Amino acid sequence: MRIIIVGAGMVGTQLARYLIQQKHDISLIEADEDRARYASNRLDCMVLQAPGNSIRTLKEAGAARADALVCVTDSDELNMITCGLAACYPNLLKIARVRNDEYVKQNLDEKALGIDHFVHPDIEAARSVMDAVEHGVIGDILSFTGTSYEFASFDIAAGTAFDGLVLKDFHNLIAGESLVTLVERKGESMLPAGSTTLLHGDRVHILAKEAELELCFKYAGRTEKPLRKVGIVGGGRVGALIAEGILNRERGLKKYFFSFIKSFIPRNTHRLFIIEKDSRLCKELAVRFPEAVILNEDISDESFITEERIDDLDLIITATEQQEVNIITTIYLKSRGVKRSIALVSGAGYAAIARQLGVDVVIPLNSVVVDSILSRLMGSGIKGVHRIGDGSIGILEIEISRGSQAEGKVLSGFRLPAGALVILVKRKDTSFIPRGDYEFTAGDQVILTVKNDKDMEIRRIFGVSP
Questions:
Q1: C-alpha 299: how far from its chain's center?
Q2: Which residues are bridge partners to 180 per DSSP?
């Protein structure tokens, strides 16, 4: 695919790097000279130091031949205007990152400016947090729509049943259908074999049904605890959306993009605290959430933590705009007795550090947004894109096209590229972990773990077109 990305911030460069690894033709536009120079020195693609909201710039970037335009600058208006200027290219897929709720609502009502997809970073972050809360904050869990299976990622504690377990003996512990898909060890990701021995400190990624996952968490040293008393540090946009989800509030724009709340009622959650040092914002939060306790305090004040018994929380969610504060706060409060923690950070690098330091669930905001963009970008046959581990391996949800190379082939006799593994199949109302006799059938959705550099080949095999 030929893709133009406008904005070379953290999201833009991370998205470009991923797409370049997959052999896509990328043009990157950035108005800021320093950012453009930085991107040019580190990315193997065309980088234009120019304003994105210019027809001349879009032409120079190759808009007439491009398949997609992705606008991810820091300005909602600039992203929307740039997409609007590209309206003269009717076959160009247009994606804009925005944070203003009204823009999203209007676009869903009227398809404003011809924008095909809006990506709302705060909504994506809140959705990830709520998924973690719904599952008890015992690890990172990814759910697949229409299946009873979930994909869980967690660390193995020393001295547990998984510590020293050889994978060929895995099903002696976990009797139901399950699959260990990936093991991370000392910064490296590896596709496991039957001879692989799990060790404490490993981060494992397992596909299983809920009952089996609960056993996996137990044997890895992770047990679910009731979440009766929850605290949110940071009452900004993301923090407020998380509060909406926890309180299960039905407000004005829910029908447009609060689908992450689902039918979720937090298990055993009874009381919510929101801690925010901005007094003006606290007044707004008090009106918006009368059932919550709003504390106008600085979380770094140790006396406040003791007086308000913040160290008695079952769960702390740190959602300020300062990722270092989020990490330090969660670590400190866990040392004081808080049972579970979720921290929002900018990218995967900080996420790895936070997990090593003991944060239970880490939400890398930029990675969440990039995954959301990729899910909308990769063609009609791609139903979802999720990167795992260090980002070098992803999960693809692909619908098998009629007439594709894979159709009619049996799994055991069909050679997939090295680094690709089919982990789940969705067929109408059923889902199952495939065995060797599974026959690839048009219309089936297959879920695979794939190394980044094999993505294009996988798409060709299953007949996915841009």
A1: 27
A2: 206
pLDDT at 105: 60
pTM here is: 0.81
Compute the distance between CA of residue 359 and CA of residue 45 in angstroms, rounded to an integer.
36
- Read off φ and ψ for residue 186, nearest 5 degrees: 55, 45
Q: Which residue(s) pair with 317 in the sheet?
A: 232, 342
For residue 86, which amino acid is it? Answer: A
Whether residue 259 sits in one domain with residue 129 = yes
Instruction: Please tell me the predicted confidence (pLDDT) of residue 375.
Output: 83
Q: Containing domain of residue 26, as a range?
A: 2-119
In this prediction, the residues of the chain whose per-residue pLDDT falls under 70 are 103-112, 224, 249-270, 379-380, 389-391, 465-466
Structurally, the chain folds into a number of domains equal to 4
Residues 338 and 449 in one domain: no
Residue type, 242: I
Domain boundary among 190, 219, 248: 219
Strand partners for 318: 233, 343
175 in a structural domain: yes
Phi and psi dihedrals of 271, rounded to 5?
A: -140, 135
* Whole-number pLDDT of residue 325: 92
Which among 457, 429, 433 has a CA at the least distance from the CA of 443? 429
| CATH number of the domain residue 29 falls in | 3.40.50.720
pLDDT number for residue 391: 66
Answer yes or no: are the C-beta atoms of 366 and 341 closer than 8 Å.
Answer: no
